Sequence to fold (926 residues):
Amino acid sequence: MSKIATAGNAGPKVRSDCEITIEIRQKGGIAINLKSKVKTLFGESIKSLCREVLDFYRIRNAVLSIDDSGALPFVITARLEAAIRKITGTEMEFLPEMLKENLYATTPDRKRFSRLYLPGNNPGLMINAGLHSAHGIILDLEDSVAPGKKDEARILVRNALRQIDFRGAERMVRINQGQTGLKDLQCVVPHNVNLILIPKCETAGQISQTLEWINEIRSGKKIRNRIFLMPIIESAMGIENCFEIARASADVVALVIGLEDFTADMGVQRTPEGTESLFARSRLVIAAKAAGIQPIDSVFSDVGDLDGLKQNVLKSKALGFEGMGCIHPRQIKVIHAGYSPDDTEIDKSMKIVLAFEEASKNGLGVVALGTKMIDAPVVARAKRTIEMAVRLGLVNSRWRETAGNR
Amino acid sequence: MAVKTVINAAGRRVPVQINGQPVVPFMGVGKHRPSGRKYSPPITSCSDFPSDGNKVVGSLEEALRKCGLRNGMTISTHHHLRDGDLISNRIFELASTMGVKDLVWFPSASFPCNDPVIRYLEDGTINRIEGSMNGPLGRFVSEGRMKGTAVLRSHGGRVQAIQDGEVKIDIAVLVAPTADPFGNAKGTGGQSSCGVIGYGKADSMFATKVIVVTDNLVDFPCYPMEIEGIYVDCVVVVDKIGIPEKIVSGTTEITKSPDRILIAELTASFLEKSGILKDGVTMQAGAGGTSLAIAVFVHEILKSKGWKSKFGFGGSTKYMVKMLEEGQMGYILDAQAFDLDAVKSVENNPNHIPYPVYNAYNYHSKGNLTSMMDIMILGATEVDLNFNGNVVTHSDGYLLHGIGGWQNCLHARNVILPLPLFRDRIPVIVDEVTTLCGPGDLIDVVITERGIAINPLRKDLVKKLKGSGLPLRSLSELKDEAERICGKPQKPHFEDKIVAAIKWVDGTVIDVVRKLRTSL
Fold:
């Protein structure tokens, strides 16, 4: 077995990360060669942290080479742990402290307008991710992580779940398929993950398999927090089965469509108009609504085109979607604004509700507002709009008192 | 030889003598009142100059000889060609071949393109630099390798030092994109246009000898002249004074970093909610990515409210020019143009007015532009719990930036520092700044991506913004948060040797930088 292993990233463009190479030896004690941007300020603390990790793994003789671009402590320990595990195969985990701010739970019906994808092996993008007010943060172990980096990314994501305060965003992890996915779950489930994204989901069986794994891990580790599931539908087969998938478990809270993979599977080009996926999107929305869960749209991949994004969100909302993934924080605001009810919508809803209540008082079941007839379903939709506006802080919960002079 | 030191009014230990000359320790803001008269260069006679007004000489070397270049002289230059400057290094190359020693280089700023002067510091041609230093030059000085002690001044402090005779310029070498044979010169025109040469005015007025170097000689009169020929001894024509694409950036761009954009949004929101941003506002923001983003957001607010800024002070960028052109800014007063749009605007727009630093920033004058500004957006490498700011050294002790106009700008009505809470694990808020450049009394607000700290001295702002929904925190809360994320940094180790003195705007010594112990 090789006695040398490397984990992490270094290079001119890398920030807030480090690359650690460890050579475990028979004798000679511990030697640490540190190259770091922050050596004057953190050199001693980086070295003593590494010694603590080596001590934890009972490694007494080793040469460490560290190329550091300002990695935070939880990143350094993740990199060193990954390198050590590569050599020794140990399953011991060097866990950083779990911040108590991170021990929150989420609810099945919470808002999920935006969820920000973060590549699971890039700590620089994670540290301030919680500041941008996304409804969910996805630590991605799947497509954004190179096959050879899956093991180290998993450890980094675990540490991030413990050490980064995402400020109330739903803490999500996208796992890999198959056995790699199982390893992912084993690593992240014990660390208060709120939701697991299951990629390339095609059958209800995948949901029950994932649940089985999660429950096994939970019972072994006595974990009590509820973990929701968000299957990503990315194929023709997935679309055909999406209602069954949506109803596979009460833990499934949303269905997501992944259009890059879906169009590839269909053998068609993905276009800005989206005609090629219109049926699939509509079908997924209907399946989700029928199952009483949230339909969520695919990401918009041109991060520079915020106007295009806005148009895309409005179309998505019109189809019935209740959220969209994002790949850059600047997309979040546009997405939130797009899915939120706008002023005209809110005003109209208020008028409808007030007119209907007035009519009910007078014993009428149907009323006209202008030339339009208002009946129960119209009122129900108006009420939903106002409830959402209240939850979003756009409208005061005592809006009836001030309606009309908004 | 140990120099006597004292504790100044800011609590910093500073020497009473620098490079053999007595200096005044910092006495507090507005406390030092020098008496006496301004410095004046020797009287000259026009009978010593060509009666046809043609002062062109054959080469820079000839000009330097004619001006009597010799050991120990002070040579000044300005930095309008920025990283494209081809002349400054050439002066010392010539001096070195002429065997001249112990010069003092007195630039208004230095750039990476000036790193080759390290050679002339090493061979004894240059004794010291009195001006900003960054990159390898900063390292050279921080490691104690420069013979003399560096003196760092703000842009305003530099012209104050010239005017008050603290620095007597023997020869000023002023590059000019356009000049006439008499020495009148301006910043526009030719192949090396930089828009404005507002940093060279005091040098031209107070230096004993003045050389204008141009690559675009035009017939008399070169108009409108920023440098006046009556001060100029000789004119040198060269093929190229600079590398155009390095003189001005083709374009300045707002930051792409989501965290910096967040800081810019918070700053704009702060300006709006505090009422500081209003119709008729006066403002200044730099050319950094975050400042530009703030300018864009401020522009949007002005537009949506139908407000107009009375004037803005440059360095100008295309974003400021856009405000001028779209009607949200009355005038741009400008000491330097940062990008091509700004250069074009100076050339074509009569409301874009060149405005020398000597007129805007000199503390020993009858009024400063900076105290007339409502909004001042500035940076810093560190801010301490008393709102004191550092702009010259990093937390690791290395000199890496000049002061620029930073100290002068602290006199604005509302001084706002939008800063990331930490950079590559290095917290920006510290217990005590490594080097004190500006007293905390003058810094009003620090805006980070994780919260806004208002200086408790600004009771009006504290009161106004209570319940505003802005994330208001104390500096110590912000510092604790940064240290919880990054860890508490160690301190760099310094030796006793003073490598640089930091002057306050009135010429007193506010702090010093000591030699770094690098054997760690």
About this structure: The longest helix of chain A spans residues 343-361. Chain A has three domains: 4-88, 100-339, 343-402.
